Amino acid sequence: MNISLSPWNKLFINLHAATMADTSVPYGAVRDAAIGVKNGKIAWIGKQKNLPDAPEKLAKEVMDAKGHWLTPGLIDCHTHMVFGGQRADEFARKLQGESYESILASGGGILSSVRATREASLEELRETALERARYAMSQGLTVLEIKSGYGLSLESELKILRVIKELRELLPITIKATCLAAHVVPPEFCDRRGAYISLICEELLPQVKQENLASAVDVFCEKIAFTLEEAEQIFQAAQALGFDLKIHAEQLSSLHGSSLAARYHALSADHLEYLTESDIIEMKASNTVAVLLPGAFYFLREKQIPPLELLRQHQVPIALATDFNPGTSPINSLSTIMNLACVLWRFTPEEALRGVTLHAAQALGLQATHGSLEVGKNADFAFWNIETPAELAYYLHGRACSKLVTHGEFIKFN
Amino acid sequence: MNISLSPWNKLFINLHAATMADTSVPYGAVRDAAIGVKNGKIAWIGKQKNLPDAPEKLAKEVMDAKGHWLTPGLIDCHTHMVFGGQRADEFARKLQGESYESILASGGGILSSVRATREASLEELRETALERARYAMSQGLTVLEIKSGYGLSLESELKILRVIKELRELLPITIKATCLAAHVVPPEFCDRRGAYISLICEELLPQVKQENLASAVDVFCEKIAFTLEEAEQIFQAAQALGFDLKIHAEQLSSLHGSSLAARYHALSADHLEYLTESDIIEMKASNTVAVLLPGAFYFLREKQIPPLELLRQHQVPIALATDFNPGTSPINSLSTIMNLACVLWRFTPEEALRGVTLHAAQALGLQATHGSLEVGKNADFAFWNIETPAELAYYLHGRACSKLVTHGEFIKFN
Fold first, then answer.
1. ipTM, two decimals
2. pTM, two decimal places
3. Are the beta carbons of B95 and A342 separated by less than 8 Å?
């Protein structure tokens, strides 16, 4: 609760803040609070009655939040939001009893998204992704991670990453790009897996670095995707180039990709249904965040629940994300995801909110600037017309925020 | 595909129609279609190339739907949308491990909603319900059923039904009110159940009839609510007064309330997880619609799935609804409900859409005017920017429509 000497740009009064900063009270809540903003950063936050002077003397603009709750802007730290087409008809075919093999044989599955994404122009991909990102913003989001991975060729992976770069220029939120060329082995390389990995390590990643198109590299480590050894090869190349690392691991089986990620000090290991205690110990030691994705668990009707109790015991930070993608998680609201985590996995609403704020920030390496309402952090926050923060995890259909602020300025989302 | 002789008020061209009328093709779909509207009714629908004249000669206004899909306006045939307060903190307490008994002992559970609803003014209840109804409209809804049932006293049940009447006057959609005074036995009558039933039958229902505040009467028939005999008593009184009948039955156990409902020719029996084949045979014979509510199934983490295959075999019409309520289904999007039905219960997206259109209309006795796109029915429909109707059941977080029309006029929903 520092006081900056010159006036603030804005002061918001008459609000309740779920700061997510102080863990001694639920949600780090401060009721009857005020928050001062200067140069896009939080300059002051605390009980309104403790403001050092009359509001109008403290800031150029004083805004009455009318008793709404304030949270840090929500953070979706794992999405595949740039893709062509949709897979609703494939969803219908499965429900009509068609087998996955038959759908694959007719060109369905992930490869249909790859085909549609390759065929789409950069402009088409940008327009659909813009609409998706704006919807997510309506649900309180101010930080968005987007992975490539439906291109699976030099040119199409670069196209997706360039779309993400354009989104960053067009939207007033923080967008982090991750290169997931190692999503699956593309069909044209199915007999030459090594050649695809060389393409990623020797051609794609250097070019991504040169054009500054992504800050992180991700690998899907699973029987149907890349082996542990292949993942390590990609990690070595990515780390040598200075990328942050992430992994999709232990979703369908236990390959210990999360332990590998921990040894390479990856930011996060994601999915983790089949995570073991030894993986957890390694993740804790390396400060690797566990990103859990209940949307895919729900949509695929999985039965294996990630080891939440062990993660809690070992105090590994647990983030939640939408995993928004056309095949296994067509879900674009963090409130919906919070509800799934509570109902299906028995998260508390507070854990769920921490999962899409403070811990999601850490999963993106943004904990110094995002994820909680603290002096010095970015003034990125969402206002909500709710009676209690638990309401954010209460509505399965999602929850729209009433206002959204990034860098201290109101932004539009519809 | 009749042709009316004088010009239509409006003609919509360049659309694809999921008419839900013709069952010989999926969704009764007509691609490259047009729809003409006259005096609030559908005057013509068919392939655009079969229009009897040039569009501008057929209608005063011609509107280009730009390739969007058209469906009947969605129908939510089972909601408890008028309530005071919320129960998010109770949701959190359960997730923190508190027992249901302890929550009940501290005044939680349904009685906390009853208390908050009794304490709220008519205006407060109207404003929160208006916001909820408008959100539902953004998701394509044009017909809404709302039950009373959080009042449980003469005066508060009437207050809720008067709120619904005001909503009907304020919103350009069709709203059906149902009196569910027999939701649970209120605490002040716990030792005098018979007196509460007499209050309903002899005082409340006659007054509801006199003020024309509801068209149907509903009873929650379950061990924790009303017995089969009590339900029958209420049915007899309601039927004598000319109300349509509905029942909450077989949600937690098999009491055969649905068979009772069928014998009284109820419009629908709702929930039905524990429905038996003999119940189904009776429902089929009386044309009673099965209204399934996957939201409460999801939220309560139930394991018993309604007997979908038997309902299909016996060709009982199956509707889906949100059951929107603060305790067991805080879900206000029919798209979210369609997705739950598909993922959790293996509905096809087409069955799900029929469940919130044609069959939901029948569950409200509105099948002559609503639920499908056919000549003579009300011109109530939703436009969707989607590639295939299956997309309506594909996004768990819901799906906003692009435009909404009731009685042939565009209506605003935000």
1. 0.96
2. 0.96
3. yes
